[in-house]
Amino acid sequence: MPYGDAMTARARNEERRAEIVRAALEVIAERGYRGASMAAVAERVGLTQQGLLHYFPTKGTLLVAVLKERDQWDAVPDGRWRLELLAALVEYNAMRPGIVQTFSALLGESVTEGHPARGYFTERYRDVRSSMAATLRSEYGDRLPSGLTPERAAPLLVAVMDGLQYQWLLDPDSVDMPAAFRDFLLLLGEAE
What is the pTM of this model? Predict the structure, then answer.
């Protein structure tokens, strides 16, 4: 196969994988992970289930691809978060409840033994805590105004972000997620 044809085939393969991941996200958002089937995803993209298995050999590999795709939407170009960017992310999440609901449901399901996304979320949270500690260190140095180190405050920051998402999903009329997160930043010592 000439070089150009191989590149074209690879590009088509990647495009098809992206289409499958988008369809899987839709199916999971509609039915939850446990209710989503490979057959439903295959049907959504016009493939047989066997054809889908060519791209993603298991439901677990497809799920991890969906989660990684979702993470790309929240990526910061230089890889470094700042507190004001985190506040903007919370505001952005408030505009996409379906994605937040899917992520939150998968996170909740992943705490069970043997769930295919458990390893993904475990590793993701290690990385997020490390990133948040670096963010806090760049904002406050080795100690926050409260006296906590960035490493001790990082899990609290992550817990607030995720906890607010759950509260907002359950009762969006009573929980203003962006405002509550800005209030939390005030507790950290961030100027209003």
Answer: 0.75
